[in-house]
Amino acid sequence: MAENVTIARPYAEAVFRLARDAKALAAWSERLKALYLAAQNPDMAEVFSNPSLSSEQRVQVTLAVVGEEKNAEFANFVRALAENERLAVLPQIYELYEQLKSTEEGVKEAVIHSAFPLDDGQLKQLVAHLESHFKSKLTARVEVDPELIGGIKAVVGDEVLDASVRGKLDVMATALKS
User: Fold this and answer.
1) Global pTM?
2) What are the UniProt keywords, alphabetically (predicted)?
3) In the predicted model, what is the mean pLDDT of residues 124-146?
């Protein structure tokens, strides 16, 4: 897996620079997401690795599946991947591109550990509160952790905001031991 990331990084950085210079970060994000989703399909994985197909045939099938036959830059990107037998690293290219895009836009990822599942309204309100606390735009990923008993623990980069019952109990236990 680490090898795939190493292979994918130059492609992700190149497409990111292309998208940034063209002021088309969102458009390229959507294109790469379509490729990412296509690459998750077992039939497409078979197309990517089928030795009886030429690289041009792989390109044509891929472009037809994602519906981007008309975009020359995108077609050239897919062609470069196919000719260098790198279509299999599309998921890593997409993930690396999204990281670069988030950094460029000043968006950080928040991992929210919650004792219970959060509905959309709760998540939206919580993210708004966390954005003001961390003074940054956030994208949130929720992980349910029943061991927290109640509340949440938010991790943004190397910062942690622990508002869980488990965290408060741990603080109390430490205070009582001192």
Assistant:
1) 0.70
2) ATP synthesis, Cell membrane, CF(1), Hydrogen ion transport, Ion transport, Membrane, Transport
3) 93
Task: Tell me which residue has tokens 């109390």.
Answer: 172
Token duo for residue 19: 């998208």
Please compute the mean of the pLDDT values over residues 84-103 and round it to a whole number. Answer: 92
Dist. CA 90–CA 166, nearest whole Å: 40
Amino acid, single-letter form, for residue 96: L
Query: Which residue is it, tokens 């690396």?
Result: 96
Q: How far apart are CA 4 and CA 34, in angstroms?
A: 19
pLDDT digits (tens, 9 = 90+) for 58-91: 889 888 888 877 788 999 999 999 999 898 899 9
The rounded distance, in Å, linking the Cα atoms of 172 and 62 is: 57
Quote the number of domains for the chain: 2
Domain boundary among 103, 136, 165: 103
The C-alpha atoms of residue 127 and residue 165 are separated, in whole angstroms, by 19
Strands 151-156 and 159-164: antiparallel
113 and 94 co-located in one domain: no
